[in-house]
Amino acid sequence: MIFELTFLGTNSALPAHGRYPSAQVLNIQDQLFLIDCGEGTQSRMVEYEIRQSKISQIFISHLHGDHVFGLIGLLTSLSLIGRKQKIDLFGPAGIKEIIEVQLRYSQTKLAYPLEFHITNTETFQLIFENNTVEVYSIPLIHRIPTNGFLFKEKERPLKIISEKIEEYGLSIPQIKAAKKGQDVLLDDDRLLPNHLLTKASYTPRSYAYCSDTLYTETIIPYIQHVDLLYHESTFLKENQQRAIETMHSTAADAAKIALKGEVGMLLLGHYSSRHRDVNVFEKEAQTLFANSVAGREGMRVQVPYLEEMAKPQVVQ
């Protein structure tokens, strides 16, 4: 029951210091979701042994090149290797035109269906769900329309306490009813409250991705108590004015959001190329929010599968 985030690119604007533009892969129960697709994304996926064929949903936060210039290459490569399964592509207005123009003028026909889903960058709303996960858009404040994304595992059926089956002689229908959250009527007419028979199978895990954005506390209700929060940290607080001018955030800004949102772990990224060492971002954030980690190329962060609340951990 894996819940793991892999950083493919952590730099802003352009490749520098061994860092690539923004891209991440989120693995939820062996389903892979690609989040942003900057230049070099497919090369990094090969390097980090991520199976491109397992990606069926792609989420693009906004249309600045460092978040989207790797997309057409990935889409055409998937076609060249014979993909037949549909891909759902989520992004703001303009994403469909960008891709279709490139396909048309390169005379490329994809071998699989590509379905576009245009996101509303001004509203928090459900944009995708399946049996495992729900994905919501988060409105951000940037120079062009921009979304963040919230990924939430769905709750699973309650788990029956095995000792209670024998203790009360529960039948199959009674067990099924208990797993659905119902109280159970025994043969002797006793009504057993559900909480005496069951426990949560696991605590659903969550991840919020907040890409390019001016510092804004309007997002706090949407990211409250998530296990993992990625919040861009293009600048340090010594460049606060530059952050405001370009509608970006500092590492300290990101830490303030994490603190107010009471998140499990803060992950930083989208670093300015003026800084070779990303430790400076981590140190600045940790002065306000102790569990802050600077994202690095190839880093993997997991939220373990446990019946109790699990603490996120860097595994690579």
Short overview:
The chain has 316 residues and is an alpha/beta fold. It has two domains: 3-156 and 202-314, Metallo-beta-lactamase, Chain A; 159-198, no CATH class.
Give the secondary structure arrangement, pairings included.
Layout: E1 3-9, E2 23-28, E3 31-37, H1 41-47, E4 55-59, H2 65-68, H3 71-80, E5 87-91, H4 95-105, E6 114-118, E7 125-129, E8 133-139, E9 147-153, E10 159-160, H5 162-168, H6 172-179, E11 184-185, E12 191-192, E13 198-199, E14 206-210, H7 220-223, E15 228-232, H8 240-246, H9 251-261, E16 265-269, H10 279-286, E17 292-294, E18 300-302, E19 313-314
Parallel strand pairs: 3-4, 4-5, 5-6, 14-15, 15-16, 16-17
Antiparallel strand pairs: 1-2, 1-18, 2-3, 7-8, 8-9, 9-14, 10-13, 11-12, 18-19
Describe the overall structure.
The chain is an alpha/beta fold. It folds into two domains: 3-156 and 202-314, Ribonuclease Z/Hydroxyacylglutathione hydrolase-like (Metallo-beta-lactamase, Chain A); 159-198, no CATH class. Helix content is 24%, strand content 27%. The chain has an eight-stranded mixed β-sheet. Strands 7-8-9-14-15-16-17 form a seven-stranded mixed β-sheet. The chain has a two-stranded antiparallel ribbon with strand order 10-13. Helix 9 (251-261) packs across helix 10. The longest helix is centred in the first third of the chain and has 11 residues, at 95-105. The radius of gyration is 22 Å and the shape is globular. The protein starts with a strand and ends with a strand. The mean pLDDT is 94.
